[in-house]
Amino acid sequence: MEVFITGVSGYIGKSILKVLKDENKKVSVRAIDIKEPPDEFRDFLSFQNLDVRSTDVESFMKGVDAVIHLAFVLNPPRDRESARSINIDGTRNILLSAKKNKVKKVIVLTSATVYGAHPDNPLFMKEDQPIRGDLNVGFWYSEDKAVQDRLVQAFARENEDISVCIVRPVIVFGENVENYIAQGFFNPPIVSILTKNIPFQFIHELDVAKAIVMMLEDNASGPFNLAGDGVVTLKRAAEIMGKPCMKIPSILQAPLVNLMKKFGILDPNTPIAILDFFRYPWTLDTTRAREVLGFRPKYSSEETFSIAWKAYRAKKKTKK
């Protein structure tokens, strides 16, 4: 099988390469990114430094059996319009290139945030829950992921000859996580409860990679929620990190975020709208992935959080 991967040098891309290599999968990998992949994988793939919006994508994709589209702006962007173009126009370009090249399988990584964080969210949402991530106005990530997810759904409906999988993982953590989400959980000196002690789910980076590889090898299609077993409440997160836990009045929540941004505790471009994802639950039901793919995550939500916390803390100590 010949596989085309976008965003291969990113967090999930490197995890997929590790799984493919460690498990000696019989695949040939063609990949693009605007950043060079790690040296350890250079002999494992054919790489081109390409933007996902490039017109050269179509020709480089020619002849592959499957496409895994990962490229997306994760960390808070300084240029919102450029990020949106990469996220949405880039996805559209990948899908159209796959269609023109008669690719048999397309796997697109979206996110659990596509469902949005809302007070009326049921606990453990299934894949047929409405896509409302773009209603969390101001949080560019859930906005663009929701638009992307709908775009892929429409593509799947219009191209029934292509097997299309949509991957919707919860928060992805692990030994290698280094992003503004990890900062939000790990950097503040206290754990803030904004409304209730809501539950969070986490999934290990390698579990996500293994699920995607399973989709490559399976005839299944459609959306798949991914999460580690169990949940981690904010109070439990505080216990794991050995930090105090405090309820923050609503009037102080936005000023507190701005203060942490000012002092470098949070990314300076972190949007205030992300607060909704700490106020309201957005947990997922993962029955479909278990029953259709036979997917069983190796790590629970709590194990994943603990692993990420220990690794993050160790890296910070090393940098001092």
CATH architecture of the domain at 2-173 and 202-227 and 282-298: 3-Layer(aba) Sandwich
SS content category: alpha/beta
Average pLDDT, all residues: 95
Beta-strand proportion: 15-25%
* CATH homologous superfamily heading of the domain at 2-173 and 202-227 and 282-298: NAD(P)-binding Rossmann-like Domain
CATH class of the domain at 2-173 and 202-227 and 282-298: Alpha Beta
Q: How much helicity do the residues have?
A: 40-55%
List segments where confidence is low: pLDDT < 50 over at least 5 consecutive residues. Answer: none
Strand order, biggest sheet? 3-2-1-4-5-6-11
What's the order of the H and E elements? EHEEHEHEHEEHEEEHEEHEHHHH
Major sheet, described briefly?
7 strands, parallel
Describe the structure.
This protein has a domain at 2-173 and 202-227 and 282-298: NAD(P)-binding Rossmann-like Domain (Rossmann fold), CATH 3.40.50.720. Helix content is 40%, strand content 17%. The protein is built from eleven helices and 13 strands. It has helices at residues 11-22, 57-61, 80-100, 140-158, 180-186, 205-217, 234-241, 250-262, 276-279, 287-293, 301-319; strands spanning 2-6, 28-33, 45-49, 66-69, 105-109, 163-169, 171-173, 191-193, 199-200, 202-204, 222-226, 232-233, 245-247. The strands form four sheets. The protein has a seven-stranded parallel β-sheet with strand order 3-2-1-4-5-6-11, with helices on both faces. Strands 7-10 form a two-stranded parallel ribbon. α1 packs across α6 and α3 runs parallel beside α4. The model has no long low-confidence stretch (mean pLDDT 95).
